[in-house]
């Protein structure tokens, strides 16, 4: 068990690293033929980035995914040498290039930024080109894709980058049957074809997140990016499958216990009212512990 360093005597979050390892092993079995990326962004979804990454690698993850270069560099400082993809980058990515961290570009302008960083670092950057297939966040649109691919190939010809990946991200994969899912998959296939015809020879092509990885075998390509599933979570209808184990248990010692009569309103908005005489227990967990007010009543 990994215990959060911020845990105190009356409330604590315990993380079962064995559950993470087991989840990744089970996921690897189900996507056999594709590599598995364990996404450990946001401090491993609150589970502790470095121990979660180590547990995922022990379970068979081939890649790790993070959001920014600070997270990626923290993994390297912890001695983790596995491939790491930085899904976004801020500022000067020179150190990330020097540490062999894979970077993503969704515009020709950012390819130029990465190429300049590679020149300073004295080694070519490993680059994944992102296509915006319908999420409308990062990535090049269909109209901008040829320019992005051309800029990347030009930088590759100058020895500044190696285009090793092509990728995108689903908007509604956790809504099985949503029309956007197949549309995005088709758009990604077209983007891959266009890039390869232009001369890109990627090591990995990837679009599947947890939801798609679990429900759409045709979306797995060379690599599946699992986030919530690594920790036993899923946004699919009905939640995560039973063979995934939640890795975190939150416990707290009750601060107060009292009896109240029927008709007692409880907490903000009185969204819960006791139907009969009841016992209430006050759990000392709130905003400071990461519990949002919106979680009330769940």
Explain this structure:
It contains nine helices and 15 strands. The two termini are 26 Å apart. The protein has helices spanning 17-30, 41-45, 49-58, 69-77, 94-98, 108-121, 145-157, 179-198, 210-215; strands at residues 2-3, 11-15, 35-39, 63-66, 84-86, 102-105, 125-130, 161-167, 204-206, 223-226, 248-252, 256-260, 265-266, 272-273, 278-282. Helix 1 crosses helix 3 and helix 7 runs parallel beside helix 8 (179-198). An eight-stranded parallel beta sheet has the order 9-8-7-6-5-4-3-10. A three-stranded antiparallel beta sheet has the order 1-2-11, with no helix packed on it. The protein has 298 residues and is an alpha/beta fold. Strand 8 (161-167), helix 8 (179-198) and strand 9 form a beta-alpha-beta unit.
């Amino acid at each position: 068990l990994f215990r959060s360093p911020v845990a105190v005597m009356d409330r604590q979050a315990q993380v079962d690293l064995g559950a993470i390892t087991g989840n990744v092993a089970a996921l690897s079995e189900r996507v056999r033929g594709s590599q598995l990326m364990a996404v450990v962004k946001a401090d491993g979804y609150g589970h502790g980035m470095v121990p979660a990454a180590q547990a995922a690698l022990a379970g068979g993850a081939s890649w790790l995914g993070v959001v920014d270069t600070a997270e990626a560099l923290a993994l390297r400082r912890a001695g983790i040498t596995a491939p790491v993809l930085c899904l976004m980058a801020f500022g000067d990515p020179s150190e990330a290039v020097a540490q062999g961290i894979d970077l993503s570009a969704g515009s020709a302008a950012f390819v130029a930024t990465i190429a300049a960083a590679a020149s300073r670092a004295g080694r070519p950057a490993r680059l994944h080109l992102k296509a915006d297939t319908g999420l409308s966040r990062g990535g090049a649109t269909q109209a901008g894709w040829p320019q992005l691919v051309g800029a990347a190939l030009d930088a590759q010809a100058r020895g500044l980058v190696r285009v090793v990946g092509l990728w995108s991200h689903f908007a509604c994969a956790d809504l099985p049957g949503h029309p956007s899912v197949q549309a995005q998959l088709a758009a990604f296939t077209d983007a891959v074809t266009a890039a390869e015809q232009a001369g890109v020879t990627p090591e990995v092509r990837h679009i599947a997140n947890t939801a798609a990885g679990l429900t759409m075998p045709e979306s797995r390509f060379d690599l599946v990016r699992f986030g919530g599933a690594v920790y036993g979570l899923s946004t699919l209808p009905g939640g995560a499958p039973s063979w995934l184990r939640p890795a975190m248990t939150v416990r707290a010692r009750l601060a107060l216990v009292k009896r109240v009569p029927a008709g007692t309103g409880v907490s903000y908005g009185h969204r819960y009212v006791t139907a009969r005489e009841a016992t209430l227990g006050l759990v000392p967990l709130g905003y400071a512990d990461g519990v949002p007010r919106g979680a009330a009543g769940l």
